[in-house]
């Protein structure tokens, strides 16, 4: 641990790996709402947040658990398609609340090209939000739809059934054939869009 007269103890949330205060300061100075994406072990959380002197106010939010409870999502809540759908849902709710522009806030997550964090941002973009980004970091349409998961599942099912059942136990337990993930993704996406068709028509 650092010591000496020049050592400065980091703020608690920085020590806990929750907040990058330098980035937060820059984002707050912009005065723009933030499109906040956070990933837990099993879920994706997306919020559209605005900073005020008394603290942050959440304007719109979505949790990937909602995909399961409200829209019939049967796949895990932490994969790339789930991240996209959660971002889409949060983006539509932000539009309904009158927000049209937000800056991305990925916290302390590493900005890895094509990651679930950027899948959520892609969802917000497709909802109609304007979010500054580079096209290069967004996942491809195939990955967003879960084509890579489906093709791997089909390959594994024919080559090693035991490993297939172990790797995709969460899918099979809920009753979803992982090979049908892209079709299931489209079904759930259409349910979300149908729910917010009034927002999309304005």
Which parts are unreliable, with pLDDT below 50 for 5 consecutive residues or more?
none
Order of helices and strands: HHEEEHHEHHHHHHH
Query: What distance separates the N and C termini?
Result: 56 Å
Q: What is the tally of beta strands?
A: 4
User: Which CATH class applies here?
Assistant: Alpha Beta
- What structural class should be given to the helix and strand makeup? alpha+beta
Shape: globular
Total helices: the number is 11
CATH topology (fold) name:
Nucleotidyltransferase, domain 5
Helix content: 40-55%
Q: Any guess at the CATH architecture?
A: 2-Layer Sandwich
Instruction: Specify the biggest β-sheet.
Output: 4 strands, mixed
Give the overall average pLDDT. 88
Strand content: 5-15%
Gyration radius, rounded: 19 Å
Strand line-up of the largest beta sheet: 3-2-1-4
Count of domains: 1
Task: State the gist of this model.
This protein has 202 residues and is of the alpha+beta class.
